[in-house]
Amino acid sequence: MLINKLFDTAIVGGGVAGTALLFTLARYTDLKSIILFEKYDEVAQLNSNPKANSQTLHVGDIESNYTYEKAEKVKKASSMVANYIQNFDEVDRCGFVKDKMLLAVGEKEIEELKERYEEFKRLYPYLELWDEAFLREFEPKLLEDREEPILAMGARGQITTVDYKALSESFVQKALDTDKNIQMRYNEEVTKIERKEDGNYMITTDTTTFRAKSVVVNAGAYSLLFAQEMGFGSQYAILPIGGSFFFTKEKLLNSKVYTMQNPKLPFAAIHADPDITQNWNTRFGPTAFALPKLERYHALHLKDFISALNIDKDVIKVYFDLFRDKTIRRYILKNVVEEIPVVGKEVFIRDARKLIPSLCVSDIRFADGYGGMRPQVIDKKNRKLLLGEAKIEEGGLIFNMTPSPGATSSLSIALTDSLSICKTLRATFDVLKHENEIQTLKSFSVKNFIKEERNLA
Q1: Which residues does 278 contact at the CB level (< 8 Å), separation at least 6?
Q2: What burial class does residue 193 get, using C-beta atoms within 10 Å of its C-beta: 0-12 exposed, 13-18 middle, 19+ buried?
C-alpha cells in the first residue's frame, strides 16, 4: 500500500512552481521517489492558468518598477525558463516570440525612459528606442488620435509570452519520462503535514496518508497556512489582491505594451498583451483590488482566509499606511469601481486610452472568468508589504509563497530548493547537466528560429 511507501520528497501544489521542482528533482538528482499532490484534476488550475495571469515572461527589461539590481536577478531567473523552452523544443507550444515595449507618454515620462534606456541597455543589449515614426508603422494604434508625444523602449526576437499551464504540463511529462518513481496525485487535497519522531513527515490528504523525508509546499497563500499550522511563519500575513482584465473585440496590437509605473503604486501599471487563449486578441489589465478570497473563482473557505490575514496591530499598521497615501487609496478605490458591470468599463477605458487613445467603451468587454488572486506577503516584524517571493525553510520543510513574478522564477526557485533538499537528504545534484540544459542556451536559438521562419516565407 502507498501508505507504507516512504518518498524522498513530497511536493504540495501543482502549479508551475511545484511542477518545475518535480522536473528538476527528477531529472537532475539521484532521488528515487517523488510524489506531487494537486487538489484539482489538472496542474496549473489557479495562478499558473493562462486565464489568471498576463502570460508574460518577466525579464526586467520593460518592467519600469524594477530597479537595476532586481532586474539583474529577474533576468538570470527568467533565462532558465527561456532556455528550457528553447532547449527542449517548446517554442510555439509553451513559449512564444512576440515583440514587446515599455511606452512613455508625455515629456516627463519620455525623459525618464531615456535615462532608463541608457542604464538598462548594459544589462539588455537588444533593447531599442522606438520613436513616433517607427511606432506609426510598427503599432499604428498607439498613435491614432494621440495628442501627447510618446517614445518606446522595445525588444524584438525574444520569448516574451508563456503559457504557464502548458509549461507545467511539460515539466510533469519530462519528470515522468525519467526512470524515477513519480507519483501524481490529482484531486487529492493535503489537509495536514506533521513531523514524526523518526524525522520523516506524515502528509495527510482527504483520502489517505503518505510519508516523505522532505516536503516542499508550493501552494500560494496556503503555503503560509501550512507553515503556521506547524509553528512557523508567524511573522507573515497575507494581503489578498485580486486582478481582472478586459478584452478588445478584435486584435488591435501585435506587441506586449507596458506603461511607465507610478513609483508610489506597489502594483503593476496597466499593460496590453496579445492573449494566447483568445487568438491573440488584445487583453488589457490588470486591475488590482483587495478581495476577501484566496482563490478567485472557487468557494471561499472563511477559516483559511481569516488565518491567512493573521490580523494584529502590525498588519493593521501596514493596511493603514497603504490607505493613508492618497495616490494608493484612489488607485484601489478606482479598481474596485472597475469591477462593477457597465460602470466599470467607463472608468477602465480612461487608463486603457493611455495605450490606445482612440479606444471606445464599445471596443472592450470585461474578461469574464479571467483574472486571479495575487496573495501579497506582509512582513509583520518590519511592518511592510513584501513585493516578491517569500520562503520559510526548516529541517527538510520548505514553504514557498510566490506572487508575481513567481512563474518567471519557477526554475530558479526549483534549483534553490533542489540543492537544499539534496543537502538535507545527502543526495547528489548533477550540476553540469543542469548548467548545460537549463542555464545555457544551446546553439538553436530564437534568432535562428526567426531566421528560418523568414527564409520559409
Answers
A1: 247
A2: buried
Q: Can you tell me the distance from the alpha carbon of 292 to that of 302, in angstroms, rounded to the nearest whole number?
A: 9
**Interatomic CA distance for residues 217 and 453, integer angstroms:** 41
The pLDDT value recorded for residue 177 is 98
Structural domains in the chain plus CATH codes: 2-439 (3.50.50.60)
Is the omega angle on the peptide bond into residue 149 within 30 degrees of 0, that is, cis? no
CA distances from 170 to 95, 189, 200, 288, 293 (A): 11, 22, 30, 30, 29
Query: pLDDT of 48-70, one tens digit each?
Result: 999 999 999 999 999 998 999 99
CB 13 within 8 A of CB 43: no
pLDDT at residue 377 in the model: 85
| pLDDT, tens only, 233-290 | 888 888 888 888 999 988 999 999 999 988 777 666 899 999 999 999 999 998 877 7
Looking at residue 85, what is its pLDDT? 98
| pLDDT score at 276 | 96
Distance of CA 220 to the CA centre of its chain: 11
* CA 42 to the chain's CA centroid: 18
Query: What pLDDT is stored for residue 27 in this prediction?
Result: 98
Taking the C-alpha atoms of residue 422 and residue 429, their distance in angstroms, rounded to an integer, is 7
Q: Please state, in angstroms and rounded to a whole number, the distance separating the CA atoms of residues 297 and 291.
A: 12
Instruction: Give pLDDT, residue 387.
Output: 67
Cell of 53: 495571469
Query: For the chain, which ranges sit under pLDDT 70?
Result: 1-4, 266-268, 299-303, 305, 308-309, 387-389, 403-404, 443-457
Q: Which amino acid is at 242?
A: G
| Nearest-5° Cα angle at 70, 60 to 377 | 105
Element holding 427 (H helix, E strand):
none
Nearest to 226 by CA among 204, 256, 199, 250: 204
For residue 330, give the amino acid letter: R
- What one-character-per-residue DSSP string does 139-178 give? -GGGTTT--S-EEEEEE-SSEEEE-HHHHHHHHHHHHHTS
Residue 384, phi then psi, degrees to nearest 5: -150, 160
Distance CA 73, CA 412 (A): 10
Cell of 184: 501524481
List alpha helices for 310-342, DSSP H: 313-324, 326-337
pTM beyond cutoff 0.85: yes
The residue behind cell 533576468 is 75
